[in-house]
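re the bet — no i am not wrong, look at it urself. input seq straight from the record:
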Amino acid sequence: MGHTARDREKLLLRIKRIRGQVEGIQRTLEADGDCFVVLQTVAACRGALTGLMTEIIEGHVRDHILDPAEEPTAAQRKASEQLLEIVRAFLK
């Protein structure tokens, strides 16, 4: 079972929250709402998408790049953690 299948419910909950944020942006724009509220919600939505992307990338590295059936070597473990650290920093 892949990580997206294993974590399906958690990922779908994130998507539903993101969808709610996007719909909130739409409602605010349709109601000629305050631009600060729109900007704040867009920033929150972007953060939520970034969090989703980070979670999926981390699962991909752990389940597809590293072999979950084998114990990674110290070098593999270090390299994967360094990669994930860089990805997290990049996506902030």
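see?? The chain has one domain: 3-91. told u. also Residues 3-91 form a domain with the Methane Monooxygenase Hydroxylase; Chain G, domain 1 fold (CATH 1.20.58.1000). so pay up
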